[in-house]
Amino acid sequence: MAEQLTSLADDRALLGRTSTAERVSDILRSRIADGYFPPGTRLSEDAIGGALGVSRNTLREAFRLLTHERLLVHELNRGVFVRVLTVEDVEDIFRARSLVECAVVRGLGEPPYRLEAVAAAVAEGERATAENDWNALGTANIHFHRELVALAGSERTDELMRSVFAELRLAFHVVDDPRRLHEPYLARNRRILQALQAGDKREAERLLETYLADSLERMVEVYRRRVGEGSAP
Fold first, then answer.
1. Cα 56 to Cα 24: distance, rounded to the nearest angstrom
2. Measured in Å, how far apart are the chain's first and last C-alpha atoms?
3. In the 8-state DSSP scheme, what is residue 79?
4. Cα distance between residue 13 and residue 48, in whole Å
5. Do 101 and 148 contact (CB within 8 A), yes or no?
6. Are 24 and 52 in contact (CB under 8 A)?
């Protein structure tokens, strides 16, 4: 927890003069999405409030917002914990992803598309792979899909998917072999990018649809095995 709190202290400047619960929840959501708080982690009000320099009431409101987004859970007389997902949660996450991400690609206008951020996410994944940092590759994969969604130019869609991608990161923590899960998808990310660079959104959508179906199958397989081993709920 000490490392996570130090990282939160670095985010304190982002709060500026408007230390609102919404901004605090944005920071915590981003940290969950980047893997700083694994499922089952108890979030200390005193420690996190001190790291961010916010009041207990502000932090509790942020916790409430993230509980509503299914990222946190409040356990009576125990505190607030990062949620541990079920197989059904994972299936629902991928259902939402398929509906939204494929619709975004299908709805793109005429090329060329603004793909700088998508390309940067692919490059981020390549750097993580070169360093054998498989958790960082998982984060880069999330960034890739987040930037795909951003191509829609819709703040509402971006906001909707922020929580979905944060939940996805929670699912990644159950995987016992992150390299096996994430590495094959880097090449697939690159192929989707190349299709979009060529202006072929139909091919990009086809690749993405297959990608998501395969990823769901792998995640559900892992979850069911870990449930059988008693490592997940």
1. 12
2. 23
3. E
4. 14
5. yes
6. yes
Three-state DSSP state, 80? strand
Burial of 113 (0-12, 13-18, 19+ CB in 10 A): middle
Can the peptide bond before residue 184 be classed as cis, meaning omega within 30 degrees of 0? no
Distance CA 103, CA 220 (A): 23
* Rounded Cα gap, residues 223 and 216, in angstroms: 10
pLDDT in tens, the chain (233 residues): 666 666 666 655 555 544 588 889 999 998 888 888 889 999 999 999 999 888 999 999 999 999 999 999 999 889 999 999 999 999 999 999 999 999 999 999 999 999 999 999 999 999 999 999 998 999 999 999 999 999 999 999 999 999 899 899 888 887 778 888 899 999 999 999 999 999 999 999 999 999 999 999 999 988 888 765 555 54
* Cα–Cα dist 182/15, whole Å: 33
